[in-house]
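Need a sequence for this fold. Nothing fancy.
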């Protein structure tokens, strides 16, 4: 009796913003059974430690523009491993569908006839906003959320001439070291120099850093380590201090209201809870 041929599959997976506890349940399940993992450079070691010891693991990431392995070589590795019948994970930081090369990988796998699945992750913008307690689309200040990359890749250079909107929040991925260039572009486009900004590095991780400033002062800020994300918009202003009727940050203080007593209904009987 012939042994059935195993069918390989590639999982294009998001590792989330860095904290292993923010991996999706689906991602955890697949990682535990993966036979090959090809990961980006910035995937934290705490997440890599979740991969079984018997799994083949290789760093295929690119660091500071220096590629240890080309994108075509990554494609070849994915296809070869899948054709050997292996379960393959292409592990990326954040969500794989935002500012990565997943589009190229999906097209290549499709042409090669290799089955693949995209496993979404908590994108870096959401992780950074949560860490800095920033409501990205506070209805009082922002009706739009714009994802931008300050990194030049392939044939597409970052052009921001058509994105300056005053009722928007900007989430700038890979802001790099030249914050002043970002500030200049947005102010030249008409954004107020006093617009609040927050730079978040290593969001959701133990060594995360959060710096708050304004668009005008952005160029003076210390360059934070990668991975970092820059949030620009009125929503990035600091939250007001507790028990203050007025604050210096521009947040509206709710008017005093009469005390409200919540009626949560009758307590359920024990048999209702059990049943």
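Here you go.
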């Amino acid at each position: 009796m012939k042994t059935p041929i195993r069918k390989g599959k590639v999982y294009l997976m998001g590792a989330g913003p860095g904290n292993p506890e923010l991996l999706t349940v689906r991602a955890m399940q697949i990682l535990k059974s993966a036979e090959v993992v090809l990961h980006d450079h910035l995937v934290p070691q705490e997440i890599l430690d979740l991969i079984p010891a018997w799994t083949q693991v290789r760093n295929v990431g690119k660091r500071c523009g220096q590629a240890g392995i080309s994108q075509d070589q990554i494609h070849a590795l994915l296809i070869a491993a899948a054709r050997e019948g292996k379960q393959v994970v292409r592990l990326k930081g954040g969500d794989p569908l935002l500012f990565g090369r997943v589009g190229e990988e999906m097209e290549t796998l499709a042409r090669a006839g290799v089955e693949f699945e995209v496993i979404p992750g908590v994108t870096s913008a959401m992780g950074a906003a949560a860490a800095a307690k920033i409501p990205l689309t506070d209805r009082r200040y922002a009706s739009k959320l714009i994802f931008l990359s300050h990194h030049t890749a392939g044939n597409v250079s970052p052009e921001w001439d058509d994105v300056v909107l005053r009722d928007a929040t900007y989430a700038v991925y890979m802001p790099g070291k030249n914050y002043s260039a970002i500030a200049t572009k947005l102010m030249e486009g008409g954004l107020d120099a006093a617009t609040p900004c927050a730079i978040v590095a290593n969001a959701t991780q133990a060594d995360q850093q959060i710096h708050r400033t304004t668009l005008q002062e952005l160029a003076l800020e210390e360059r934070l380590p990668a991975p970092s994300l820059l949030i620009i918009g009125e929503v990035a202003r600091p939250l007001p201090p507790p028990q203050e009727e007025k604050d210096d940050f521009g947040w509206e203080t709710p008017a005093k209201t009469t005390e409200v007593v919540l009626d949560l209904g009758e307590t359920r009987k024990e048999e209702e809870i059990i049943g």
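For context: The mean pLDDT is 87.
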